[in-house]
Amino acid sequence: MDKYIWLIPLLPLAGFVINGLGRNALPKNLIGAIGSLLVLVSFGLSVATFFQIKASGVPINVNLYDWFAVGNLNVSFAFLIDQLSAIMLLIITGVGFLIHLYSIGYMHHDKGFGKFFAYLNLFVFFMLLLVMGSNYLVMFIGWEGVGLCSYLLIGFWFNNPSYADAAKKAFVMNRIGDLGFLIAVFLIFNTFGSISFADVFSKAASMQSGDSTILLITLLLFVGATGKSAQIPLFTWLPDAMAGPTPVSALIHAATMVTAGIYMIARSNVLFTLAPVTLEVISIVGIATATFAALIALTQTDIKKVLAYSTVSQLGYMFLGLGVGAYTGAFFHVLTHAFFKALLFLGAGSVIHGMSNEQDMRKMGGLKGKLPVTFYTMLIGTIAIAGIPPFSGFFSKDEILAHAFEHSTTLYVIGVITAGLTSFYMFRMMFLTFFGKFRGTHEQEHHLHESPATMTIPLIVLAILSMIGGMIGVPEALGGHHELGAFLAPVFEPSAKLTGEAHHLSHSLEYILMGVSVGAAIIALLYAYTKYVSGKHVPVADTEERHVLAKLSYHKFYVDELYDFLIRRPLDALSVFFYKVVDLLGIDGLVNGLGKGSVEASKGLRLLQTGNVGFYIFMMVIGIVAVLLYGYTLIN
User: What is the DSSP code string of 350-394?
Assistant: First the structure.
């Protein structure tokens, strides 16, 4: 596969060019076929690459060309495909293809169909570039590219001002994180004399744990990760990003782009292992984000907003795994989350499609019989994300919680509570949407229908993956040998050597921990059932008063308002000051003052041009006298 690696990102790029140029000329069916099939072929090449890596165990290094050389910096445009990036290729192209296929049905009546598929293909290209790069600069290009595509896709319906604002918000908040990433790359070159992964990690392995330079580099990299992966304090852009079409939410904000920060830290695991302080920061920020987002999701009534805050919460779980050194567990959750969260977003899109673009769960209910495929597939995704065995989410979440327990009992307890909250708000979403009586309009009920096959087939495939995906990471306590862990071992082996022999929990203790987390999820499920099915409770209208805590949760703890008060308004006031005082009065005043002074002076001098010869002779005499006096003063 070494000779064909370059085709994996090139094919989606070709789809972008073809669909971009032919968006107004090509028929929609052809645009959809081109965009989807090129990603499918890329998936096929990724599968072949994966099996080559699995069979040989040897990473594939492909140096396409020497990019540039400046002083001691020599950068090659090169790809590195190892166990970590091979799995990411499968996620990006495999889930990406299913979302492309789904989009054919979902976006079929949209006027910007061709442009939408061009953007999707461009996103896949940049995401592939991000995970395939063999150095930090190629990764950064992909990193910036997916940020650009996120802006374009979130603001796809830019005629709506709120959607355009959401796109700008995502772009700006991502740039904050990207600055941290870029400074970290400069520091990496200054410290190691290279930005190639192979050179940096081999040199770093010989450094002392806790080195201040490594600490600064990893903290800056983590700043980049918080922006891209929506962690506190840079998380508020992701819920607003639901303004984009639902396939965008599934592709970018569930399966791929938001996991870029996780991938970057996992790729740089040697650096982070050498910075235990940074790992502590990551674990604290991760569990705080997971819990905070879960508390917000408890009261949301927009079906996509529930899933958005769920995504933020699950990303927090992944960061918790990274922070406690469970690199394999965190990446395992990336994999399973890609399956069940893409499924849930696409399922929500199917509901919205059937409900004639209605997203408020208070106006749904009783859809189980009307949308059977959507219901059963989303139920599978909900069970998986709740962490109930034997579905995929149970295995990956249990592994993170087990490592958290080893690291800190406090982190574990908060993690279990968050798992219970996750189960509650996800089943709340299911019960409000699919159970009880229909609460929408008669017109909506009349038009209720299951989605077309192009939308339901991806749901079924993702549901199957959500059921069986966890089998690749069955722990020894349950009779497995964690195939994913064995496969990824070469990637995380340098970190394992730095930390020494890892402590393993006894099987009996693992059973107890599993029982606690599953018990929390089931108790939350039963409570949600009692409240929303047996009790037939429906969230109150926006105009009605809520309990204080419910009000805080529903209004997202006023974080956006806090940012607006502390950051945006002072910056706006400072901008007005610079405009009115520094710019208008200072700079413009100086420039315009010089101009006006010249004009007024010229007006005065013009009066001397009288046309009278006698006056000119008189002025000449005065000039001669002045010159003589000046000469006299110089002599004396």
Answer: HHHHHTTS--BGGG----TTTSHHHHHHHHHHHHHHHT-TTSHHH
Q: What is the pLDDT of residues 258-285, one digit of tens each?
A: 889 999 999 999 999 999 999 999 999 9
CA distance 533 to 271: 50
The pLDDT mean for the chain works out to 91
Q: How far apart are CA 262 and CA 128, in angstroms?
A: 15
pLDDT at site 503: 60
Residue type, 146: V
In sequence order, the 6+-apart residues with CB closer than 8 A to the CB of 160 are 243
For the chain, how many residues are written?
636
**Running DSSP on this structure, what letter comes out for residue 541?**
P
- Which residues are registered as beta bridge partners of 73? 70
Cα–chain center distance at 103: 20
User: Per-residue pLDDT for 401 more than 70?
Assistant: yes
Name every residue whose Cβ is closer than 8 Å to that of residue 113 and which is 6 or more positions away in sequence: 23, 28, 31, 32, 107
Q: Burial-class residue 88 by CB neighbours within 10 Å (0-12, 13-18, 19+).
A: buried
Which residue is listed with tokens 């959809």?
32
Comparing CA positions, the residue from 325, 437, 331, 463 lying closest to residue 385 is: 463
Instruction: DSSP for 446-500, please give it.
Output: HH--PPPHHHHHHHHHHHHHHHHGGGGG--GGGT---HHHHHHHHHHHHHHHHH-
The sign of the torsion formed by the CA atoms of 411, 413, 414, 420 equals: positive
List, in sequence order, every residue forming a beta bridge with 302; answer none if it has no partner.
360
Residues near 392 by Cβ (< 8 Å), separated by ≥ 6? 336, 339, 340, 384, 465, 466, 467, 468, 469, 470
* Number of neighbouring beta carbons within 10 Å of residue 198: 14
- Taking the C-alpha atoms of residue 26 and residue 34, their distance in angstroms, rounded to an integer, is 10
Residue 324 carries which DSSP code? T
Give the model confidence (pLDDT) of 70-99 as tens digits: 888 888 899 999 999 999 999 999 999 999
Distance of CA 197 to the CA centre of its chain: 23
How confident is the model at residue 110, as a pLDDT?
A: 87
pLDDT value at 356 more than 90: no
Write the single-letter amino acid at 295: L
110: Cβ contacts below 8 Å, ≥ 6 apart: 116, 245
Task: Indicate whether 501 pLDDT > 60.
Answer: no
Amino acid at 429: M
* Preceding peptide of 233 cis, ω within 30°: yes
pLDDT band at 502 (very low <50, low <70, confident <90, very high): low
Is residue 505 very low, low, confident or very high in pLDDT (cuts 50, 70, 90)? confident
pLDDT band at 32 (very low <50, low <70, confident <90, very high): very high
Residue type, 404: A
Which residues, other chains included, contact 199 with Cβ-Cβ below 8 Å and sequence gap of 6+? Answer: 192, 193
pLDDT for position 610: 75
Position 66 scores a pLDDT of 87
The span from the CA of 264 to the CA of 185, in Å, is: 12
Assess whether pLDDT exceeds 80 at residue 500.
no
